Amino acid sequence: MAVAKEGGETSGAAHGAGKEPSLEELLCSLNLRGEDIDGLFVAKTEVENLKEEKKWMTVMCLLTSKPFSAVSQKKTLRFAWAPAQEVTFRDVEENRILVQANCLGDWKRITEQGPWIFQDHGLLIEKFDGSCRVAAVELNRIHAWVRIHDVPELYRKKQLIMGLAESIGEVVQVDMNASGLESGDFVRARVWLDVRRCLTCFVSFKPEGGVQVIMRVKYEKIPRFCGVCGLLGHMQEECGTREHMPEAVVFGKWLLADTPWNRAQLYGSNPSRPDERAIGRKSKHVWSWCGAWGQRRRT
Predict the structure, then answer these.
(1) pLDDT at position 215, please?
(2) d(CA 280, CA 73)
(3) What pLDDT score was predicted for residue 245?
(4) pLDDT averaged per 10 residues in sequence order, the chain, 299 residues
(5) Distance in angstroms (rounded) separating the CA atoms of residues 174 and 191
(6) How many CA atoms lie within 13 A of 183 on its CB side?
(7) Which end of the chain is more exposed for a tag (fewer CB within 10 A), N or C?
(8) Which of 193, 186, 175 shows the shortest CA–CA distance to 218?
């Protein structure tokens, strides 16, 4: 979580000393329940009318524990979203912002056309109808397009691909024809990635009486991730003790698809001419830790 600082700077880690207790902590300390507190009755029809008036809202936070400029973040997002009408931001609490769009098109672009990334950090964003506290909205997922490579022709059916994609995240859309992208033996799926889980590196078919077919997963555009634990939101130098043996770094750049967004990371300062030897060296290590990765996922 984050704390606002002077000059519009925000930090991803809340201060321990002097922090105001949450509503849940106060109710628990006072041994109070909802039925112990008098409430104003609001009719269902009035609630529906209020929802109609307060449309096109979202709640968002940046997946980071590092300080960042909230002013710069909002400026960058306005530019990326290119809204047709005004979009307003309201800081609610630590690194949690209420966003109000003023037309359906802008709202759908904000909530459905991510992932939105600021300074290599992913934006967690959810649609919001205003019926609960902003702090109660769960923010733990991010959109991503993933590629599943080398799917055998026998199993290249939409329903089966959806089943594979479900092991990566909640499926939004499956693209069997790669939408006219550059050539490659892969199918695409748009999923919600749960940021509390490590990235999925492989999926497989297990035909009855046959040989298991293992396929690689690559990501077209995702925020920074840890090479040790595979979680989004931090780098390996920021994970645990921050000191790791080379063999502990198992989530590598080979998880990134060859897209304009990823080429600088994949190929360095000359993204138009990939270093095939480097890619080959990385690929050699993929299967060597496949079993360890599978055990990590099961735990």
Answers:
(1) 96
(2) 37
(3) 86
(4) 42 53 79 72 71 84 92 95 96 91 96 93 93 90 95 93 96 82 80 96 94 96 93 90 84 92 82 44 40 46
(5) 9
(6) 0
(7) C
(8) 186
Q: Which of 233, 221, 265, 225 is nearest to 113 (CA)?
A: 221
d(CA 79, CA 90): 17
Tell me if 225 sits within 8 A of 195, measured CB to CB: no
Answer whether 145's CB lies under 8 Å from 190's CB.
yes
The pLDDT value given to residue 81: 96
Question: Which three-class secondary structure state does DSSP give residue 132?
Answer: coil
**Pairwise CA distance, residues 171 & 142, whole Å:** 12
For residue 37, the tally of other CB atoms under 10 A from its CB is 8
pLDDT at 18: 60
Q: Is the peptide bond before 115 cis (omega within 30 degrees of 0)?
A: yes
Name 96's bridge partners: 93
134 phi and psi angles, rounded to 5 deg = -60, -35
Amino acid at 214: I
Question: What sign has the CA pseudo-torsion 137, 138, 142, 146?
Answer: negative
Distance CA 7, CA 65 (A): 18
Return the pLDDT at 177: 79
